[in-house]
UniProtKB/TrEMBL annotation:
Family annotation (InterPro entries): SsuA/THI5 (IPR015168)
Keywords, in A-Z order: Signal
Name assigned to this protein: ABC transporter substrate-binding protein
Organism for this UniProt entry: Cellulomonas wangsupingiae
Superkingdom classification of source: Bacteria
Length: 371
């Protein structure tokens, strides 16, 4: 059965944005059910080689289906502060994260997903050909990590990564939280044999609940879960350990069929330009972001919103991806050793034609908003 998206509403303050939004009530199961009979996207009539220059003209009728709810809200709030290709039309799909986006890619229901650095690796290991087309990091990643390791009440003597030995550690294979566990063990000179890995999904408050219930001794927690955990259980001895490792990748990835389709590739180029502007706009407008996204959209308290904005870090938009691909290769090798999968060449996951697109869009935004 062909993909039949639900009703759409227009996103953006001016007609030139032409951003269509999939209704927020649409959940992934319904989206995929509509596509169950057509698991792959239509093949393009012409394919652009990975080394060819990216097309810039978006043919009329081209639509990009994007699973990136945070950017969707940023675009809505920023309005005319962002410059958008007038030919870009987006259908916003209400889904995010590696498992959901990869599943939607397989169903031919999604063109772009927003993830960290792990989902593209696992996608390739499971036979899904993907490319990373945009990357943003944090300049101050040491001061503002995404994750800290929560330590359960009553678990004494855990003040460093080396102290993890002999403890039960929450672990989610294939997700960023799982990899930070492996990196932490590696940094401490430990192996998975030195701890007991307890497989748990890292959704919502699963890890903080497991810590409080004594199901695990240590778990990587992030965002407002850190503050809430310490506020609730700190008096009982709960605390966190900082890992001092990079955990800051923010990527866009796509099925390779998207970059091989000239029409989709042109639309993707325009979206990448919009995406990096949105990242910078959020950093430049903390009060608007707190009120419009964290409080109004996500339903967080003002205190939680303040906590998140204060720890969001400064966006780092690299002009060259060489260093980051090298780090990604290290991640591939770490994961391969832990899972028994073959070692991939990380460079094959990156479409480096988009690196200057990201850098130039960031530079143009900064020049336009300076002063």
């Amino acid at each position: 059965m062909p993909f039949a998206p639900p009703d759409r509403t227009t996103s953006g303050r001016t007609a030139r944005h032409r951003l269509a939004a999939v209704a927020a009530a649409t959940l992934l199961p319904a989206l995929l059910a509509a596509c169950a009979g057509d698991a792959t996207a239509d093949s393009p009539t012409t394919a652009a080689a990975a080394t060819a220059e990216l097309p810039t003209e978006i043919p009329t009728g081209t639509t990009l289906v994007v699973g990136d709810p945070t950017t969707q809200k940023a675009v809505e709030l920023a309005g005319d502060d962002l410059v958008t290709d007038p030919g870009l039309t987006i259908e916003w799909a209400n889904l995010s994260g590696g498992p959901q986006t990869s599943e939607a890619f397989r169903a031919g229901a999604l063109d772009v997903g927003a993830v960290a650095d792990i989902p593209p690796i696992h996608a390739e290991w499971t036979g899904l050909d993907v490319k990373i087309v945009a990357a943003v990091y944090r300049e101050d990643w040491q001061e503002n990590p995404i994750y800290e390791f929560g330590v359960a009440p009553g678990v004494d003597g855990v003040e460093s990564l080396e102290d993890f030995a002999g403890h039960r550690v929450a672990y989610s294979p294939g997700q960023a939280q799982g990899v930070i566990v492996l990196r932490a063990l590696q940094e401490a000179g430990l192996t998975t044999d030195d701890v007991t890995l307890v497989e748990l999904p890292s959704n919502g408050d699963v890890y903080t609940t497991a810590l409080a219930a004594g199901e695990v001794d240590i778990a990587p927690i992030g965002g407002v879960q850190i503050a809430r955990y310490l506020d609730k259980y700190g008096a009982d001895g709960a605390h966190t350990v900082r890992h001092g490792l990079r955990d800051d990748p923010s990527h866009l990835y796509v099925p390779t069929s998207v970059v091989d389709d000239p029409a989709k590739a042109a639309a993707l180029r325009a979206y990448v330009e919009l995406w990096v502007q949105a990242k910078l706009w959020v950093h430049d407008h903390p009060e608007e972001w707190k009120a419009g996204y964290y409080v109004e959209d996500q339903g967080l308290s003002a205190a939680d919103a303040d906590y998140l904005v204060e720890r969001a870090g400064i966006p780092d938009v690299p002009t060259d991806w060489t260093e980051h691909i090298t780090r990604h290769q290290e991640t591939v090798e770490l994961l391969a050793a832990a899972t028994g999968n073959d070692v991939l060449d990380a460079a094959d996951l990156w479409d480096e034609r988009f690196a200057p697109v990201v850098a130039e869009a960031a530079a143009a935004y900064r020049e336009r908003t300076a002063g």
